[in-house]
Amino acid sequence: MAKSYKTSYYILYALIAVIVAVFGLFFLVGYDNFEGALRAPENTGLLMWLMFALSGITFVMFLLGVLKEIATAKKPRLIGALVFVALLVVTYFIASTEPLALPGNKVMDSEVALRFTEMCLYSIAILFVVTVAVALFSLVKSLAKK
Questions:
Q1: What span, in angstroms and rounded, lies between the C-alpha atoms of 99 and 9?
Q2: CB 100 within 8 A of CB 118
Q3: pLDDT at site 103
Q4: For 28-54, b where at least 16 C-beta lie within 10 A, e where not — what string?
Q5: What is the DSSP code (8-state) at residue 114?
Q6: Cβ-Cβ contacts under 8 Å for 144 (sequence gap 6 or more)
Q7: Cα–Cα dist 53/42, whole Å
Q8: Does the global pTM surpass 0.70?
Q9: Do the beta carbons of residue 76 and residue 65 sit within 8 Å?
């Protein structure tokens, strides 16, 4: 096994272990954290910080990949990166800024947080649909060749 392959292999399994541990804490530890009439899991904050960390790492790796492509390629192939950035910009601006009612008579009215949350949800949904469509197209194409 190549050294870079071993490194990515160990990092993948370490991330899976951390994710499984945090999800186990989230779902199995308890629901004594009352939010008005609702009971929230005790480790909701831990799960949110894990998602923030994984999102940040993904964004940094995306930027490093784009910078490496620009630095090493004679003719950079940045169409995918540009489409991804365009998707994020479009979904950010179509997101709603309507205040959100939370339990305990609280209201989330931060325009940036509301837009960012909906941007993430819309982008995930669109990328999921595109992934399924490409997988189905690939399947149909491979069956047509036979």
A1: 43
A2: no
A3: 67
A4: eeeeeeeeeeeeebebeeebeebeeee
A5: H
A6: none
A7: 19
A8: no
A9: no
95 closest CA partner among 113, 112, 119: 119
Token output for 71:
């630095």
In contact, 116 and 108? CB cutoff 8 Å: no
Residue with tokens 């197209």: 137
The identity of residue 143, as a single letter, is L
Predicted confidence (pLDDT) per residue in 68-123, tens digit: 888 887 777 888 888 888 999 999 999 988 887 776 677 888 888 888 889 988 99
* 60 CB burial (10 A radius; 0-12, 13-18, 19+): exposed
Element housing 73 (H / E): none
> Letter for the amino acid at 62?
F
Burial label for 91, CB within 10 Å (0-12, 13-18, 19+), is: buried
pLDDT at 58 over 90: no
Show Cβ contacts of residue 29 under 8 Å, excluding neighbours closer than 6 positions.
Answer: 41, 42, 43
- What is the number of H-type helices and E-type strands within the chain? 4, 4
Contact 18, 46 (CB under 8 A): no
Residue 9 CA to residue 7 CA, distance in Å, equals 5
